[in-house]
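Aim 2, interim progress. The first record below pairs a target sequence with its C-alpha cells.
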Amino acid sequence: MRIILITGISGSGKSVGLNALEDAGYFCVDNLPPKLLRQLVATRLEEGADMLAVAMDARSSDSLAGLPADIQQLKSEGHDVKVLFLTAKTESLIARFSETRRSHPLSHRNRPDKNIADQPTLTECILREREMLSPIEGIGHVIDTSGLSANKLRAWIKDMVATERAPLTLLFESFAFKFGVPLDADLVFDVRVLPNPYYDLSLRPFTGRDAPVIAFLDTQAHVAELLTDIRLFIEKWLPAFKNDNRSYLTVAIGCTGGQHRSVYMVERLAQHFGSSERVLLRHRELA
C-alpha cells in the first residue's frame, strides 16, 4: 500500500495538503491518533485499498513517540510509507491564526478550567509544538509553507505525488534571500555574487525564464563557472544522498529578489539533471 503521513506545525497547511491528496485519489483520514495507524492500514487492506493518506498533529502527541517504530514496521511489511512534514516561520503562523481567529490546539491542553490568565501565548504554543514534533520532522520531507498560497501548496503536493515512486527526486527551488531561506532546503547556494539583470532597466521586467535574461546571463563567465561548480557538487554527492534512502533532495538557489539569477540557475540545473534524474521545479517568488 502507498501511505502518506502528513503532519507538521498547526497552521502550516495540513488541511490543504490532505485535500490535495484526496484529489489525487488517496483515501484520507484527518487527526488519526498514531496508535491506530496500523489498525487502519490493516482495515484498508482488507477492503482492497492501495492508497492511504493520514493527517496527524500535536493533538495526538501522547502517542506520537511510537510513530517512527510503526513506520519502520509498515515498511518492513512491504508498504511504501512517506512522511510529509509541513512547517512555516513563526511570524507566518501567528499571522494565519490572527486572520482566522482560531486558537492554537495546544492553548487549552491540560487546562480543563480554561482560565485565560493561565493559558500559554500563541508563540509559546508554537514553540512547544515544534519541540514535540521535532522527532517526526527528522524522518519526513519538509515543506516550508511560509508565504505560500493555498493553490501553490496544492500544486506542489500534487507534483510530489506524481513522482513518489521514484527512488529519489531532485527538487530545485529558487528564492529571494530578502524573504528568508526556505526551511525545507537540504542544500543552499547563494548566487548574489553574479551580475544582476535587475540593474539593466531593459531586463528588469523579465525573469530568469525569459530569453533576454537568459541571453544576458549566458554571456557571463562567472555565471557559467558557478553553475558548473554547483552541478559538480551535486553530481559528486547525489549517490550518497540516494544511499541514505532519501525520497527528496531539495536544492535551494537564492539571489536578492528571486526573479532573475536564482531562477536562471534553477532552470539550468533542472535541464541538466532532468535527463538522468527525477526532477521537480519550484520558483518561490514567481507568481
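The second target in this work package is listed in the same format:
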Amino acid sequence: MTAQEIIQHLHLTPHPEGGYYRETYRATDTLTTAAGHTRSVSTAIYYLLENEDKSHFHRIKSDELWFFHQGQALEIILLTPGQPTRLTLGPDFAAGELPQAVIPAGVWFAAQVKHRPGYGLVSCTVAPGFDFADFELAERAALLREFPQAANVVEQFTKATQENT
C-alpha cells in the first residue's frame, strides 16, 4: 500500500505537529496527575510520516512509547543537555534500528523519515494518557535560547513563526 492508501484505510487525519494520526485507544480508567488533572491511564494512536513530513519539536507531560510497524525507518531527535540524541526506529536491527523507543515526559522531540522518499508507520502509546492540554509545540526562538548547541536541528524541526497549541 502507498502512504496515501494507508492514511485512507486507517482513517488518519493531519496532526498539529506534522504527519497523520488517529487515536485507537483511550483507557476508561483514569487517574489524577500530580498537577491535579484527570487523565486516562493510557492512550494509543497510529502515526504516519511521509516523505518530507516532519514531526516538529514538541513535548508532552507523560512518557511516550513509539512502536515501528512498516515502511522506512524514522529518525527521532531528542533535545537533552549537550548534543541532540538521535534514535532510529525501524526494522533493520543489525543496523542499530530499534523496534520501539521511549520518549521521557517533558523532553522536546521531533521525527522524520530517515531515508526519503517513503513513509514510516508507527504506533504511539502515552501513559498517563495523552491530552492536548499537555501538548506543547516548540517555538523556535525559545528552543534556540535553551539549546544553542543544537541550532541546526532546532531550525530544521521548527517553523519560523508558530504559535503553541
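The chain has a mean pLDDT of 94. This observation will shape the mutagenesis plan for the next reporting period.
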